[in-house]
Design goal:
alpha/beta; Protein-Tyrosine Phosphatase, Chain A; 3 domains; 16 helices
Length: about 475
């Protein structure tokens, strides 16, 4: 593709050393730059791509997109914000693949991964191909293996490349987790969404967004950009429901789901057991019973969100119910790795997420047994949620083991101190501290009985731990199986 075809998309830009060179790829990491690539100079939190532009040219970059003129002999396109410009360029370079797809975006603090997987299962049960992009990676079908996507929502070059791959593979449906960061940073800019799903909004990422209002505004971008004929699925029980509804353009069909408030798709008569949940779903003047293999009230909401999205797409309720009933747990989401004691690994890493998973686990805990919670908090992230999560664990669990999560550059002991600030009384018979996560999981055996329920929260599906100077292999599920008998 000629450089001029890409520059014609830009309303405001300047050029230096312009030549209409042929572009064969895109890069924003000089180490990965190949001959014929555009190199985009991105200013991030830790580095500035402008410093690596010469290195990219040395590796064969054919042109540079930058925010300031550089003393480099190479075609330069100077724009106000390369991070935002990147989305437009990537979409054009890959010939706007989202226009060829039924693209469904799922956003919210918790539940995105499960909801996207459920929607994929429903569409496949309806004999339609559906690809998925999200926290676990991307895959072209539910039976495909995950391929690493680096971020919950990939950067524009990777995202548009993957969407083009999916469109060219004959796939007509793609469901994608859309993070607040990706919306704020315009990663999904120039993606044409046909539907959007809102799960919930609770505290997370305030190290980035600073306030909950800013967090909401970032999430709301997905709904503001819907078009007439698209659909929006909204959790009617969430306190931000009306705020999201208020930004949805006219002509977009709204479907509300919930348990407590008036909703188009509503769950009633909910009963939980170790095997899952039974409930009645009311919709379109009908009532149907569903038996889920997923557990906890949060799983009921996730199933309702997927149910509502499927109804919005015109899928028959028999197909929807069959898909939901055949779906097992999603990796690292209330995943049972041992039954005596019952050991549950979950990705819960926010106050709301931890509260939800502990309440769900309490439903499965015999009255004469203990609910034990092991968790930590990530380093270099929102510090204000740490004491809140300590308080939640203290209030809802009988025994608490505080440990490390992904400490990153922070001292694990200082993170633990922040968590401990939320614990009312440090009773040494029920509150324990072990910074080494592997040792902490081993310690669970010493403080548990076969009838107890143990929740290992925070990392879920992750098979790594990010330390100060290295990233090591670490999987909560593997560690728990090493300690307890596997299922």
């Amino acid at each position: 593709m000629l450089l001029s075809k890409l520059t014609r998309l830009l309303k405001e830009h300047k050029t230096k050393n312009f030549q209409d060179v042929d572009i064969t790829g895109m890069s924003y990491n000089s180490q990965l730059t190949k001959k014929g690539d555009i190199f985009l100079c991105i200013r991030g939190e830790m580095s500035d791509g402008h410093k690596y532009a010469q290195d990219a040219v040395d590796k064969g970059a054919a042109a540079i997109f930058c925010e300031e003129e550089l003393n480099i002999n190479c075609p330069q396109i100077i724009v106000k914000d390369t991070k935002r410009t990147m989305a437009a360029i990537a979409a054009a370079f890959y010939n706007e693949p989202s226009k060829e797809l039924n693209l469904i975006g799922v956003t919210g603090t918790n539940g995105k991964t499960t909801v996207t997987h459920l929607i994929q299962k429903i569409l496949e049960e309806n004999n339609e191909k559906c690809a998925l992009i999200g926290t676990l990676g991307y895959k072209l079908s539910s039976t495909d293996k995950y391929k690493d996507a680096k971020h919950t929502t990939p950067q524009p070059p990777e995202l548009q490349r993957d969407l083009r791959l999916m469109a060219d593979s004959g796939i007509k449906n793609v469901v994608i987790e859309v993070s607040s960061h990706s919306l704020e940073q315009n990663r999904v800019g120039f993606c044409c969404f046909n539907g959007a799903v809102f799960t919930n909004l609770t505290q997370d990422h305030l190290d980035y967004h600073i306030t909950m209002r800013n967090y909401f505004k970032a999430k709301a971008i997905l709904f503001e950009n819907l078009k007439e004929g698209d659909f929006a699925v909204i959790n009617a029980d969430d306190e931000y429901a009306e705020d999201f509804i208020s930004v949805i353009p006219e002509g977009v069909k709204i479907y509300k789901y919930g348990v407590k408030n008036n909703a188009d798709i509503k769950a009633e008569n909910i009963d939980f057991s170790v095997d899952g949940a039974k409930l009645t779903v009311s919709f379109n003047s009908k009532s149907r019973e569903i038996t889920l293999h997923l557990n906890g009230m949060f799983s009921v909401y996730n199933a309702l969100a997927a149910f509502a999205a499927a109804i919005a797409m015109g899928i028959d309720d028999n197909v929807i119910i069959k898909a939901l009933e055949n779906t097992k747990s999603v990796a690292g989401r209330f995943e049972i790795v041992s039954k005596r004691p019952l050991v549950i690994v979950d990705y819960a890493h926010t106050p709301d997420g931890l509260e939800n998973v502990l309440k769900a686990a309490r439903e499965l805990t015999p009255k004469t047994s203990n609910l034990i919670c092991l968790f930590g908090c990530g380093g270099d992230r929102d510090t204000t949620k740490r004491p809140k999560m300590g308080k939640i664990a203290d209030n809802l669990a009988d025994k608490v083991v505080v440990t490390s999560d992904n400490p990153r550059s922070e001292d694990p002991q200082l993170i633990i101190s922040d968590i401990m600030a939320g614990i009312k009384t440090v009773d040494t018979q029920r509150i324990f501290v072990e910074p080494d996560r592997r040792e902490a999981i081993k310690f669970l055996k010493a403080i548990s009985n076969p009838e107890d329920v143990i929740v290992i929260a925070g990392k879920g599906h992750e098979d790594y731990q990010i330390l100060k100077n290295e990233t090591i292999h670490f999987d909560d599920r593997e560690e728990a199986r090493n300690v307890f008998c596997s299922v």
